[in-house]
Amino acid sequence: QVQLVQSGGEVKKPGASVKVSCKASGYTFTNYGVTWVRQAPGHGLEWMGWISALNGDTNYAQKLQDRVTMTRDTSTSTAYMELRSLTSDDTAVYYCARGGRDWSYWGQGTLVTVSS
Amino acid sequence: QSALTQPRSVSGSPGQSVTISCTGTSSDVGAYKYVSWYQQHPGKVPKLLIYDVTERPSGVPDRFSGSKSGNTASLTISGLQSEDEADYYCCSYVGSYTLFGGGTKLTVL
Description:
The structure holds 2 protein chains of 2 kinds. By secondary structure, chain A is mainly β. Chain A has strands at residues 3-6, 10-12, 18-25, 34-39, 45-51, 58-60, 68-73, 78-83, 92-98, 110-114. Chain A is built from no helices and 10 strands. In chain A, a hairpin with a 5-residue loop joins strand 4 and strand 5. In chain B, strand 3 (35-40) and strand 4 form a beta hairpin. The termini of chain B are far apart. The model of chain B has no long low-confidence stretch (mean pLDDT 96). The interface between A and B is medium-sized, with 21 and 24 residues.
């Protein structure tokens, strides 16, 4: 069965960076891209970007493109999302999801808290 | 890249039908057939209800249906049930980026 398992919650100070992982299983990793979506507490879903698991091509949300990097490791079927220069506005649950256009399979979410 | 516009809340009684609208522009919702809808219960992962405007993944009841007219997409839930009470999000894929709506809270009275 398809599974996406994300790394555990993180607490970071303002200005720091965070790297969240998303390990895929149950399907051929390079056949699908991985999308990252975040949700601030009490707020809606926000698309962050997408990475092709096949060749590493990426598309990022305009507002994040200077601070976010998405990568993948095909040897371990794992996708990564790194966000730099964190502020309190980046406090959110971060989700990975399989695919680029619509998402039936999601990770369990990773809570990133930015606090001094 | 502005968010799609959804009503903040809708409500209905059990057995009734409700429709949630999702308004974009001729550059996103109006230009592509890639509108999807997600249901999210509090503290849970979003669940895909509709993709490609009208398609339902296997396992999603046919009480949920999607449509689109011009720059506005809609999700209709018929035969409302108490478990339908949740947040609903529309989403429009436009190639190099994707937009979400702000979300609609559905209350089953």
